[in-house]
Every structure is written in C-alpha cells, then in structure tokens.
Amino acid sequence: MRLSPSSTFHPVPTLVGCGNVAPMDEPADSAEEWRRQRAHAVRAHAADAERRLAVETAQARRLVADFAAAALARGLQPTALTARGYSGRGRYRTGLRGWYLRPDVAVGTDGEFYLLTVPDSVRGRLTGVTVQPAQPRLVVGEGARDGERISLSELLNLRLAAGDDWPHGR
Predict the structure, then answer these.
(1) d(C-alpha 92, C-alpha 112), whole Å
(2) Could you tell me which residues are beta bridge partners of residue 144?
(3) pTM, whole model, 2 decimals?
(4) Any idea what the Cα angle at residue 63 is, between residues 47 and 55, rounded to 5°?
C-alpha cells in the first residue's frame, strides 16, 4: 500500500491492559495473576458441580428408599439380584434381593440403588460377588443411546405400577 504525501499514518492501537493480554513490561506478574484467577475459577466451578451432584444424589436416594418401602408395602415380590460381567456373557450371584429396573439396574430391599455390572471373573462366577450401593442419579441412562434415557421417578413409578409383571432382569 502506498501512502500519498498528504496522508498520515495512524498506528493500530495496542492491546496492553485490555482483557487477558498482559502488558509487555510486566508479563510474569500478570501471567501469574491470570493463572491464580483461573485456578480459583476452576476450583469454584468444581465445588459448585460437586454441590449440585450431592443435592441430586440426596433427592434420588429419597426416591429409591420411598420406592423400596412402597414395593414392600404393596407386596411386590423381591427376587435374587444377579450381576452381569462387563462382557455381558456371565451372571454372578450377589446375595442381594430386590427389584430390577433394568437388566443392570436394581433397587435392593435395603432401599439402596445398585448397578449390577462387575468385572469378569472365574472366581466370582463360582463364589459370587459383592456389589456396593451406587449413587443414584435423577436420570437413568444419561448419555446413553436414544430411547435409553428416563427420569428415575418415572422409571420407579412404571416399575411400581407393573407389580410383579416386569420384564427386565430376567
């Protein structure tokens, strides 16, 4: 680009002091401050997510405990719960009794929520496995394929309404 003798050159304004760009004469201090602010924001975000998860889990635990009490009161027959291996091939005794919601999800007579998948193991096939209660979520199948996602309260209501005639888990 050629400038005519009568035109004047106007430089582009610098970005010093604007937004996240550090001034040229203090790069280390400003960069360190930015890192501290970012770390604080990440910690605050993680704490908020953890708090929201705890609230959701508490609500879901109440739903599950209420379901177990209602199922017992209505006389729904609990069945022996078996876990499946990650490969999907084997079944493992758990020593738990309860009601299946899905082939790999159940509510125990103890009012706990169980995910019934375990690592494949020959020893487990022979002696059985121990399944620990899981943290229930308000949505079952979150992140799964289309049609596999359902709210926990809706799934529990469907299971309760079906009585002993529930196809999952058999």
Answers:
(1) 19
(2) none
(3) 0.73
(4) 10
- Domain residue extents for the chain: 52-162
CA distance 92 to 25: 66
Question: What size, in residues, is the chain?
Answer: 170
Q: State residue 1's pLDDT score.
A: 47
Region of 132 (left: φ > 0; alpha: ψ -120 to 50; beta: rest) is: beta
User: In this structure, is the dihedral angle defined by the CA atoms of residues 51, 56, 60 and 62, taken in order, positive or negative?
Assistant: positive
Can you tell me the distance from the alpha carbon of 63 to that of 111, in angstroms, rounded to the nearest whole number? 9
Q: How far apart are the first and last CA of the chain?
A: 79
Pairing of strands 79-85, 105-108: unpaired
- The residues, ordered by sequence, that sit 6+ positions from 152 with a Cβ below 8 Å of its Cβ are 60, 63, 64, 136, 137, 138, 139, 140
Q: What is the pLDDT along the chain (170 residues), one digit of tens a residue?
A: 454 555 555 555 555 555 555 555 556 688 889 999 999 999 999 999 999 999 999 999 999 999 999 999 999 999 999 999 999 888 999 999 999 999 999 999 999 999 999 999 999 999 999 999 999 999 998 876 666 889 999 999 999 999 988 886 65
